[in-house]
Amino acid sequence: MARPRTPLSSYGTIHAILVEPGKWRARTRYRFDDGKLRQVERFASSEAKAKAKLRAALVDIQTSTAAEVKRETRLRDLGERFLSAKAGRAPRTVDTYERAVRKIIAPRIGDLAVSEATPDRLQRFLDSVASEVGVGTAKTVRSVLSGMLGLATRADAVRANPVRELAPLEQKAKGATPIPVDELAGILAKLRSDERAGELDLVDIVEFIAGTGVRIGEACAIAWEDVDLEAGTVSIRANAVRATGRGLIRQTHTKTEAGVRRIRVPGGVLGILGDRRLRGGPNRGLDLVFPTSMGNLRDPRNTSRDWAEARARLGIGDYSFHSFRKTVATALDQAGLSARDIAEYLGHADPSLTMGTYMSKTVGGTRAAKALDQVMNG
Fold first, then answer.
1. What is the helix (H) or strand (E) element at residue 48, kind and residue range?
2. Where would I find the beta strands (DSSP E) of the chain?
3. Of the candidates 98, 79, 81, 90, which has an alpha carbon nearest to the alpha carbon of residue 33?
């Protein structure tokens, strides 16, 4: 007999587990108004507190989703309804939505009724956000507003979503500076000779990123179960991120769906991984390839700061971790790989993004690994 579906605005069994000493996670699946089941979880210092915290959150979600959206509904209340509908998304995504609603939209235009959210008012609001906070933040706020007023449109509180009538927000892209391919080997040689970088266990992770082009959060989250030394491959399927109220976590998915991939790594990088495997060291629970000296999950922000300080000590240019990513794209392009091949290696869904943003415009699987080996070794 088929298992009955969870009714709308209800949830299944609550499960709780101890994720680390003094930290419990309570989790269940809630069926939202769109019919989709999404995971909702809360953390606390004990099993009972975690479950109580989750039940309170579920009551808030039920109250919010049960409320009817009308022309008189205030934007701050519509924003909370929108957040409830997105509660099952990735923690970092939820944090972004919450900041947009509670820190920007609600304080500035939260008392406007849905019917008062005209294109003219919203345009002036977004223009002020772009001017005072930045275009990037304004774009995020616009996206959240579109989702909020999409709820109002579907509830027939307004005839059409007013956000669709707004002018685009323009921002000149300023990306990371790519490292010239012929300078990469020299930069890595300088880093290997730096005593402080050795003390911080910085060298291996930098070389790994330089040889694969993975994102810093992806590199910090790689576990030994993702590494196949015999096949010479690494699976990218997690991300180290900070989430409000939870601190640093290993998110069990990448930045995008296309980011989940298995790549063949250069021989030099494979040697580094093999050495680390033999060397061992502290590793608490997650069995990470690049943990901290205490065996914990490495923070991408702290690692980026350590790399910036190393650059200053060694007289290396202003190259971020993302610079390595661009250099890898250029090196693979020079080796004759197609845009699709390079996009798949870097975890991009759209090859045009790879071509337009990541490949150098000035320098013209196994092939990728061989090409990167040559670049890293000079």
1. helix 47-66
2. 10-11, 15-20, 23-31, 37-44, 227-228, 233-236, 239-243, 247-251, 261-264
3. 81
What are 206's two structure tokens? 């930098």
Contacts of 186 (CB under 8 A, 6+ apart): 378
Q: What are phi and psi of 202, to 5 degrees?
A: -90, -30
Residue with tokens 């290997």: 192
HSE (side-chain half, CA atoms, 13 Å) at 315: 3
Letter for the amino acid at 244? T
* Whether the Cβ atoms of residue 33 and residue 55 lie closer than 8 Å to each other: no
- Spell out the long-range contacts of 256-260 with Cβ–Cβ below 8 A and sequence spacing 24 or more: 256/347, 256/349, 257/349, 258/343, 258/344, 258/347, 258/348, 258/349, 259/215, 259/218, 259/347, 260/236, 260/347
Task: Tell me how far apart the alpha carbons of residues 140 and 317 are, in angstroms, rounded to a whole number.
Answer: 31
Residues 333/364, Cβ–Cβ less than 8 Å:
yes
Burial of 303 (0-12, 13-18, 19+ CB in 10 A): buried
User: Of 91, 102, 14, whose CA–CA distance to 56 is shortest?
Assistant: 14
Q: Is 263 helix (H, G, I), strand (E, B) or coil?
A: strand
* Structural contact between residues 175 and 357, judged by C-beta atoms closer than 8 angstroms: yes
Distances (CA, A) of 335 to 212, 248, 367, 375: 15, 37, 8, 10
Instruction: Look up residue 290 and give its DSSP letter.
Output: S
Kindly state the DSSP code that residue 264 receives in the 8-state scheme.
E
Taking the C-alpha atoms of residue 18 and residue 26, their distance in angstroms, rounded to an integer, is 9
Cα–Cα distance between 1 and 12 in angstroms, integer?
19
Q: What is the pLDDT along the chain (378 residues), one digit of tens a residue?
A: 556 777 777 888 999 999 888 999 999 988 876 677 888 899 999 999 999 999 988 877 766 655 578 889 999 999 999 998 888 787 888 889 999 999 999 999 999 999 999 999 999 999 999 988 888 899 999 999 999 999 999 888 888 999 999 988 876 555 678 888 889 899 999 999 999 999 999 999 999 999 888 889 999 999 999 999 999 999 988 989 888 778 898 988 776 665 688 888 889 999 999 999 999 888 888 899 999 988 999 999 999 999 999 999 999 988 999 898 888 888 887 777 777 777 777 765 555 444 444 444 333 256 666 666 666 766
- The candidate with the shortest Cα–Cα distance to 81, out of 47, 105, 116, is 105
